[in-house]
Amino acid sequence: MFDLDTIRRDTPGCLDKVFLDSAGSSLPPEPVLTTMIEHLRREADVGGYVAAARQSGALAAVPHSLARVIGAQATDIALTDSATRAWNDFFASVSLGPGDRILISGVEYASNAIAALGRARSTGAHVEIIPSDQYGRIDLDALENMLDDRVRLVSVVHVPTNGGLINPVREVVELARAHGSLVLLDACQSFGQLPIDVTELGIDALSATGRKWLRGPRGTGFLYVRPGLVDALEPAAMDLHGAEWTSENSFVPAPDATRFELWETSVAARLGLGVAADCLLSIGTDTVWAQIESRAVALRQGLASIPGVDVHDRGTQLSGIVSFTVEGISEHLVRDQLAAQNITVTVSGRGSTLLDMDARGLDAVVRASPHYFVDEADLDAFLGAVRRLQTSR
Ligand SMILES: *Cc1c(COP(=O)(O)O)cnc(C)c1O
């Protein structure tokens, strides 16, 4: 059952402010925080190795919890320290040669594009941009025309960092499959927000972070790799956890996705990540999404009714990321004026999603991303503050 009062009491940070930045770095639930602090104390008491051994059960459960959220098996999960690391680790393990093609989407995240361009430079592969349709989504007809057997990988950003768009993942996978191209899903902004079922989507790999919609700790993320595929992939960096050193000149990679993991990690953060996934599972991904969606709809409607405010979200079905600008006031000033009233929003700048921002002639947008712990009074306070920004101009 969804009990907003309990949820808010478990999220002390939301009680004295209007927090609308779960697309940036959300507020963790109290059990996540407690788990992490307790583990740090344990490490200070008995040392990191003994502390980890005492939590071995909880640690082993972390990939199971994450896997449950996306309908995968624990062995398909590699825990990392960020979504970017996960994306890069998978991408780097896909072999590329001269003339190979990598397709990225119009809302590609900067770090993905930078990695793709870097590898294209060193391998002779080409990075090409899939055109967007009239709604800003991946243009499926255009994609179909681009696909051939030289396309090694299609990168799909499920939900971009700068607005409410949701890309049609299933449809992209169907087309890519027909040409033997891999699909890597950047689920950084959809994981913890939208229900995701990797089997239903049919994707080959997925990268996600802990600190955004999952409400987990910073410095956490994970990679999902489709079972059956992992054998063909050699991670660029493997250590004594991801592989076994078997003789003077041989080693054997782990048989599952853990070949992408490194041994050293923040155990406290990893435990916190597992608790965050459990919190999400206890509320239910469908409920979480319904709650987020209703708040985003209310925000967009409210903003659209304010003179001088432009809402920039594109798409046919919209996520919980609400993007807008206020005529005559810079995005940074909007953010700062709201911050002075205890309202947290962020600015998404051109550089994060360069292709999309340039295509729309935008330099920056203000981003409001309400999670399920945001209540109606918060939404009213935010809309009132935006209205006053306008009239005080
Ligand atoms: C935040 C974000 C990332 C990067 O996540 P990190 O955990 O910071 O590495 C990747 N893609 C999208 C769409 C994002 O919004």
- Tell me roughly what share of residues is in helical segments: 40-55%
- Unreliable spans are none
Bound molecules: pyridoxal-5'-phosphate
Mind summarizing the main beta sheet? 7 strands, mixed
- Output mean pLDDT: 97
Order of helices and strands: HEHHHEHEHEHEHEHEEEEHHEEHEEHEH
Structural class from helices and strands? alpha/beta
- Rg from alpha-carbon coordinates: 21 Å
Q: What coarse outline follows from CA principal-axis ratios?
A: globular
Please indicate the percent range of residues in DSSP E strands (runs of 2 or more).
15-25%
Widest sheet: strand ordering: 2-8-7-6-5-3-4
Number of strands: 15
Number of helices: 14
Determine the N-to-C terminus distance: 44 Å
Describe the protein in words.
The chain has 393 residues and is α/β, with parallel strands linked by helices. The chain is 40% helix and 16% strand. It is built from 14 helices and 15 strands. β5, α8 (169-178) and β6 form a beta-alpha-beta unit. The longest helix has 20 residues, at 285-304. The protein is globular and about 75 Å long. The site of pyridoxal-5'-phosphate (PLP) has 13 residues, from α5.
Keywords:
seven-stranded mixed beta sheet, 14 helices, single chain, alpha/beta, binds pyridoxal-5'-phosphate, 40% helix, 393 residues, four-stranded antiparallel beta sheet
Short summary:
With 393 residues, this protein is of the alpha/beta class.
List strands and helices in order, with pairings.
Layout: H1 4-9, E1 18-19, H2 30-46, H3 48-54, H4 56-70, E2 77-80, H5 83-93, E3 101-104, H6 110-123, E4 126-129, H7 140-146, E5 151-157, H8 169-178, E6 182-186, H9 198-201, E7 205-209, E8 221-225, E9 243-247, E10 250-253, H10 267-283, H11 285-304, E11 309-311, E12 322-326, H12 331-339, E13 343-344, E14 346-349, H13 354-359, E15 364-368, H14 376-391
Parallel strand pairs: 1-13, 3-4, 3-5, 5-6, 6-7
Antiparallel strand pairs: 2-8, 7-8, 9-10, 11-12, 12-15, 14-15
Helix pairs in contact: 2-3, 2-10, 4-10, 5-6, 11-14
The structure holds pyridoxal-5'-phosphate (PLP).
